Amino acid sequence: MRGTVVVLVNGEVLANGQGSRISDQRLNAAKLADSLLPLFAEDLQVLILHGNKPQVGFVLLRSELSSHALHTVPLDVCGADTQGATGYILALAFKNVLKKHSISRRVTSIVTQTLVDADSSASDTPVKTIGPWYDREKAEAFRLGRGWTMREEPGRGYRRAVPLYTAREILEMDSIKQLVSSRDIVIAGGGGGVPVIQNDRGDYEGIEAVVSTEQVAQIFARSIAANVLLMVVESDEKYVLSGLTTEGTNHLDLDGLEAILQQAKIESSNVLGKLQTAYQFLKEGGEQVVITTLRKLPDVFSMQNGLRIGSLSPSIDIFRVERTTPL
């Protein structure tokens, strides 16, 4: 069997509601590794991305709590920190499951930098809130003392808001493509990669901003000609509220997905982002998108679960489905 799969794992899948300690993230990584074994056991090229939203929140909170004694951590360094730590946790889990099943494959984790379109003067640049919540007094102190933009989230307090920039290029792409083609299981683009710009001298420079992990997954999928995009989410709840489900066996063709997007009735930005990513992937030549939860991930490969979008008969056998319940 030949083919290429891009796997996008939400950061909340590892640091979920059942616990966000490192020990909990290790357990969830082990569950993920066991569930992805059918991919690892086949002659498939595999690239895995992970989100880092809760992990970044933990690092920022630790940085703030210790700021009376230590320097604070800039957001770009925080992103690199979480890429390294989460990549290590995932790589260890993957190596252990490969060893357990006597599968000879290398696992490589790469701290990735993403060149972005950054125009600080653009008033229409979207923003994303990050880090812990603060009361009004603390938020105002950070606004004046650190120059932060603060946004109120009713009922919770104030959070820092940073630009969400469009990704242009993955700086490590050539190396990543070589590793993927060599059948390494590659972990890259964590959290969308560390956003960087080219300054006036032409040097690369990290900036305090964020990048959409979904958009970076699209860039990877296009660059390595992925056949299937598999997205693992932490919960089915937001999909059910949107009239969908990731924990049944359901199918949407491209026209059905386009109709849902045109209706503009999806209120969850997380669900909408995943569906828009699915649409773009399929429009650019991808064959199938599967969205499921960690607890139901093993059933994807026994054809019993997953919101499948696009073809039911992709070129990769383990993603083929004979019958589904249409939406």
Your description of this structure?
Helix 8 (213-223) runs parallel beside helix 11 (269-283). The longest helix has 26 residues, at 75-100. The protein starts with a strand and ends with a strand. The chain is built from 12 helices and 16 strands. A 9-stranded mixed β-sheet has the order 3-8-2-1-12-14-15-13-16, sandwiched between helices. Strands 4, 5, 6, 7, 9, 10 and 11 form a 7-stranded mixed β-sheet that branches. The mean pLDDT is 90. A hairpin with a 3-residue loop joins strand 6 and strand 7. It is an alpha/beta fold and 327 residues long. The relative contact order is 0.15.
Strand content: 25-35%
Outline the biggest β-sheet.
9 strands, mixed
Instruction: Give the oligomer, counting copies of the same chain as homo and different chains as hetero.
Output: single chain
- Could you tell me how far the N terminus lies from the C terminus, measured between alpha carbons in angstroms? 30 Å
Number of strands: 16
Percentage of residues in helical conformation: 25-40%
Radius of gyration over alpha carbons? 20 Å
Strand order of the largest sheet: 3-8-2-1-12-14-15-13-16
**Principal-axis shape:** globular
Order of helices and strands: EHHHEHHEEEHEEHEEEEHEHEHHEHEE
Mean pLDDT: 90
SS element count, helices: 12
> Structural class, from secondary structure content?
alpha/beta
Q: Regions with pLDDT < 50 over 5+ consecutive residues?
A: none
Describe this structure in a few short sentences:
By secondary structure, the chain is an alpha/beta fold. The protein has twelve helices and 16 strands. β9 (194-198) and β10 form a beta hairpin.
